[in-house]
């Protein structure tokens, strides 16, 4: 049983610890934080554990060097949330708006993303372990320099996504849209379904300057 989170008592502050709280339908975004006279939503060293975020607004919040563990996000608004050097561990995110979401130079372990809008998201220099993206919009997402060896993408739209200098040995793709992706030289060791291989062949041909005649 989770305790009900209350504002402003349970707004995130630097070096704060938040455990077993239900933040459902609360607004923790930058606008709401300013309205209750919180000095800043750019917090760091925050620990969030065993919390639920159902319909919660966390847009534009900054969580640097923070840890989010054993949490659930459903129908949440995480658009333009920014985190550097932070970790997601045993977390489920479903049907959430995450446009412009940034989780850079961090860790993502035992995390599932289901039907999330993750277009323009930034994952640069982040390591993934047992992470799965299913039915997600990842158009123009940036995975540059990330370690994706423990990631799986199923039925995702990766149009225009960037993979330059990523580690991808064992990264799995099934039923994904791969048009216009960047960093194809990093795909050594990736595992693709037959459908994805056919789609990727056109991108490989384009990258090599090969013209395909009908």
UniProtKB/TrEMBL annotation:
It comes from the Bacteria. Coiled coil: none annotated. Gene3D superfamilies: E3 ubiquitin-protein ligase SopA. This is Pentapeptide repeat-containing protein. It comes from Planosporangium mesophilum. The lineage of its organism: Bacteria, Bacillati, Actinomycetota, Actinomycetes, Micromonosporales.
């Amino acid at each position: 049983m989770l305790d009900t989170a209350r504002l402003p008592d349970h707004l995130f502050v630097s070096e704060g610890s938040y455990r077993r709280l239900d933040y459902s339908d609360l607004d923790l975004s930058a606008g709401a934080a300013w309205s209750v006279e919180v000095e800043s939503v750019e917090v760091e060293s925050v620990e969030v554990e065993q919390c639920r975020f159902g319909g919660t607004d966390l847009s534009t919040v900054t969580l640097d060097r923070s840890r989010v563990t054993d949490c659930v996000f459903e129908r949440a608004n995480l658009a333009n949330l920014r985190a550097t050097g932070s970790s997601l561990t045993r977390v489920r995110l479903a049907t959430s708006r995450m446009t412009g979401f940034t989780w850079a130079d961090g860790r993502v372990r035992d995390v599932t993303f289901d039907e999330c809008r993750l277009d323009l998201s930034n994952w640069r220099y982040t390591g993934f372990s047992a992470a799965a993206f299913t039915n997600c919009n990842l158009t123009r997402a940036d995975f540059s320099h990330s370690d994706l060896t423990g990631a799986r993408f199923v039925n995702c739209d990766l149009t225009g996504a960037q993979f330059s200098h990523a580690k991808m040995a064992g990264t799995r793709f099934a039923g994904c849209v791969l048009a216009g992706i960047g960093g194809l030289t990093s795909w050594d060791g990736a595992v693709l379904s037959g459908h994805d291989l056919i789609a990727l062949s056109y991108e490989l041909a384009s990258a090599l300057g090969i013209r395909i005649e009908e």
